[in-house]
Amino acid sequence: MHSFSRQQRRRATLTLTGLTVFALASLVFSGVAGSVAVPLTEMPAALGELLHGHTSSLAATLLELRLSRAAVGFVTGAALSLAGVMMQALLRNPLADPYVLGISAGASVGALAALLFMCAAWMVDAAAFGGAVLISALLYLLARRDLRGGTAAEGGSAMLLLTGVILASACMAMVTLMLSIAPESRLRSMIFWMIGDLAGAPLRLLPWLVLAGALLFALFSARSMNVMALHAENAATLGVRVGPLRKSLFFISGLLTASAVTTAGSIGFVGLIVPHAIRFIVGPDHRVLIPAAALAGGAFLVMADTLARTAIAPQQLPVGVVTALIGAPVFLFQLHRLRR
Question: What's the predicted TM-score (pTM) here?
């Protein structure tokens, strides 16, 4: 792929700078907004208290809780959006979704089984991650020939997609069975996990490490992804190792999805609408699309979660409800534009 021209470089810089500012603004907005507002004038003092390790004022306490939740939302949204970009490159379909291969459904089976048997919180997370990894491994075993194939991009992608849909259907049948036999005392937490919710989600280092590693890989592979997207049948002759690239995209997008679902449950539409919307703005070049989609996905989920906890405050909505209410009409609009 050719290098950036001066105009493309300027446009990319402006876009990424604007998205960075938007991401920071979303974090600030999440800190001040809530059933008890924190005035902007008190933000510097409250931040100073947090940096010094003590929260003596109400503003600092609220800011600590809200910024911790916003940080979890940002890393989850960025992971889902980046997984969407990689899944769309793998399947060569701009409307592919990180949940399309059934990895989220596998995580749901594991998490709901742990919730059904009243396991500890860390066991729920471990069961969700284990379910996602198990489905990924099973999907790889069933479709490894399609992932290894270098030139059968269209047929291989279709078989991979079909296998994922079948596995997802089987997992959702197990989810329905567990929901139907679950006692009422555990049903609410199980449904909230299925919808996707950031309330009580812990701020951990591991999702950030997964996101950083995946982002570095994606940026390093951006040129190859461009070649594979534009010249699928001839990518191997142009120097792209298509088989290893397709396997890497599969495993890393699966790892990002597993990390996001383990952290916050099954939050839909982020990995579907954000990469597609950013592609309309910056174009299909993955060298810009990858960091732009990660920034936009993180900011989008932070804003959606802020809306979820303030729309009918003091009652809070699951953030998955908000992303679905926003994502469904946006997806239909994008689909209409794509057809045109």
Answer: 0.88
